Amino acid sequence: MKELPSLNNLNNDILFEICDWVKLHHASQDSPSSAHQQLLSPLKAFASTNKHMRNVAARDIFQGIKIGQDWNWDRALSALDSIAQCEAVRLYAKFFMIDLYIGPTYEERQRGCDKKGPPPPRRFPKMLLQVLTSLPNINRLTLVIPEHHTNVFKKIFNKSNPSFPSVRTLVLGPHMDWIIAMCPNLTTISSHDWRWLHSNIDGKQSNRHSADFIKSAGQAKDLRYFEMQERWPRWQLEAVYEAMPMIQSLAMPVGGGDGIKDLLPTLSRFKGLSSLVLPNVSSLGVGFSPPWCGNAYMGPGGEELALQVEAEGRQAAEMVARMVFGNVPSLEELWVGDHSKANITRTDTGEIDEMSWTYNSRQKPNEDPWDL
Q1: pLDDT tens digits, residue range 145-165?
Q2: Burial grade of 370 (CB within 10 A; 0-12, 13-18, 19 or more)
Q3: Which residues of 212-235 are buried (b: 16+ CB within 10 A; e: fewer)?
Q4: Which residues contact 296 (CB under 8 A, 6 or more apart)?
Q5: Residue 139 phi/psi, 5° resolution?
Q6: Angle 117-120-122 from CA coordinates, rounded to 5°
Q7: Contact criterion met (CB below 8 Å) for 361 and 304
Q8: Torsion, CA 280, CA 282, CA 284, CA 288, rounded to 10
Q9: CA 310 to CA 166: how far, in whole Å?
């Protein structure tokens, strides 16, 4: 009896191509907001056929691990236990993200509940360490632990003194800077989202964690990109220069500290800087301060006001760009905010020859890997 055609008879190289087609075909049909969930569904169906197909699809299904923001300690620990038991996850994962906020609710805070929230289960830090050291191919690592409990993790990790040589991109929450020394091949370091600006481990908001973060990042010998969500007073930029004077790419989002004219003398000292991200132009102290309330753009004259604000904003950004490019001779690319990018060509004498602008969204290291 003649054998019927079967996918099982194809060699793995062809099956890998089929997996790639499934990913691309369904990714093109998905909306961005649901891409990472829908993208894997066809692959899961393919992998459910039999063991052979599951092994072929494993490299794509298990590309990343995410332990979510709204989980409690027990649920996160259960996830770590499951990862420790799944060889395919450990073998194929390229990025690992743990982002936990575990604290009192608003109602609990109103009743005077401890702002630190409950501590992690005793074996949680050791289990996290066990999982991380079992992931040989992780190149992107995001660690955001409730800041009041980071010292527990620091003690466990320091005692073991692990190394994570495969990690190239590291994204950290407040008071996690100590893990930088355990990642010897980092090229990109970034702080993680809005919580960076709301650290209150000392009982009040402070930027002690930012100073520690800068100092630790300066020890990364192959570092090319550094980003930190801060207000950026001049002394903070000077600390970055002292720690990493030859940094190639520097991102300074948020702002609200010193204006660009106060920052220029320090920026001009960076001799290898080719790419710079500045805060929104309204935070740079150049006289551009548009209405932020949406009501200003509604009703009679609202459309005209919006067009005027857009034109003035671009004019202000152009002024900032010429100031910065003129003072940082090595600079080739400048973002003013997260949606306006200027690139230039220079003359033989280093003067600005041509400047071009593009308006799209900046890709950030601290974004959810599933959204990139």
Answers
A1: 999 999 999 999 999 999 999
A2: middle
A3: bbbbbbbebeebbbbbbbbbbebe
A4: 302, 305
A5: -110, -10
A6: 145
A7: no
A8: 140
A9: 44
119 conformational bin, left if phi > 0, alpha if psi -120 to 50, beta if neither: beta
Q: What is the rounded distance in angstroms from the CA atom of residue 155 to the CA atom of residue 150?
A: 9
The H-or-E segment that residue 345 falls in is strand 341-346
Confirm if 223 and 283 have CB atoms less than 8 A apart.
no
> Which residues, including other chains, have CB under 8 Å from residue 249's CB and lie 6 or more apart?
224, 225, 226, 273, 274, 275, 276
Contacts of 166 (CB under 8 A, 6+ apart): 135, 136, 137, 138, 139, 185
**DSSP per-residue string spanning 158-203:** HHH----TT--EEEE-TT-GGGGGG-TT-SEEEE-TGGGGG--TTS
Which of 365, 68, 70 shows the shortest CA–CA distance to 80?
68
Task: Check residues 103 and 299 and name the one with the higher pLDDT.
Answer: 299
The H helix count followed by the E strand count for the chain is 12, 11
CA–CA separation, 236 and 233 (whole Å): 6
Instruction: List, for residues 244-296, the tens digit of each pLDDT value.
Output: 999 999 999 988 889 999 999 999 999 999 999 999 999 999 999 888 888 88
Q: Kindly state the helix (H) or strand (E) to which residue 353 belongs, with its residue range.
A: strand 352-358
β-strands 275-278, 333-336 pairing: parallel
- CA 76 vs CA 4, 16, 50, 91, 206: distances in Å: 46, 32, 29, 20, 28
* Residue where the block lists tokens 């074996």: 123
Q: Please list, in sequence order, all residues whose beta carbon lies within 8 angstroms of the beta carbon of residue 315, skipping any fewer than 6 positions away.
A: none
| Higher-pLDDT residue of 49, 135 | 135
The rounded distance, in Å, linking the Cα atoms of 197 and 207 is 8
Q: What pLDDT was estimated at residue 52? A: 82
Q: Is 280 helix (H, G, I), strand (E, B) or coil?
A: coil
